[in-house]
Predict the structure.
Amino acid sequence: MISIALRNLLGEKTRFAISVGGVAFSVMLILIILSLYQGWKIKSSEYISHVDTDLWVTQSGSADISNSASYLPESVGKKIQVIDGVAEVNKFIGRPVNFKIKNQDTGTYIVGFDTDQPVSGPQHLVSGTAKPGDGEIVIDKVLAQKRKLELGDYIDVFGEKLKVVGIAKGANMFLFQFSFVKAEEAERILHTQGITNYYLVKVKNGELSSVRNEIKKIAGVDALTSSEFVEKNRRVIDEVFLPIITVLVLISVLVGIAVIGLTIYTATVEKSREFGVIKALGGSNGQLYRIIFEQSLLSGLIGFLVGTAATYLLLWIIPYYVPVFVTYTRGVDLLLVFGLAIFMSLVASYIPVRRIASIDPALVFKS
């Protein structure tokens, strides 16, 4: 019976293309929105989550890089260093700034780091060097694409000309991108001599809890584990942007279900006369069900494959034109959409198959 299903599908190539195209478009729409959702959810905190530290020491009440400020005197760092169980203490100097790139106002988050111990430096270098010197800066790939910057270009930060010597990836927080300079350069540009924004503390094995409790005893200071700090910084994305994308995901699923259902239903109904002939020639209702379900499964499967291929093609092309369009496609999302496409194909074919099964074969031959 699969040969009959194939002949029905391929007999009218235009109708077959429309049927597969409807499924493919729905699959593509759902997958792109799901990938965008996962991209915002996972990639927004990629840089912070990869900073190699056990504890983030912050000013009390400040744990959100994008929406709050933290200023700690050097005396806090000295007190942390003498706590039993502390293995290493590093400064994190940084703040969001607005500056000009090629006469355009641009926002970024300047991070100053120790180039000899690049705990908070750029993590995934694309080109150039990851160790900027005096008057030099490493920028994120998204920022470079947005402003068409290349190695050797200069940007103006508070009247200081900084030469782009490196381009990295993984430092895009959507609201802004991180850029990196050496610690001394950041202190001079941002006027933060004598203070730091955060202390990054690594502890000896098994000492995390005790070290954290000791740090919290310092007045005006809080200590968060790396996972806690990441979660707090992800909250602005989770609370502001993800609900919007969640609505878009639900809408795309509903639209996809409607398109798949309508496409398969129409393709099945239009073959009613052919199915009536099969029944008149002795075909049973069970055989009709098999033919129609096989047609629907084939349409759903081919549409899913075409839609998935189109999705990956678009997700590869779009970032070249919209750099902040960061996506992440999970295998579980592919399985979810595959199951949805097949399920809707079968449901959509079940509705007309009941009508076709009740056709009087004698009516088929009436002119």
About this structure: The chain has a mean pLDDT of 81.
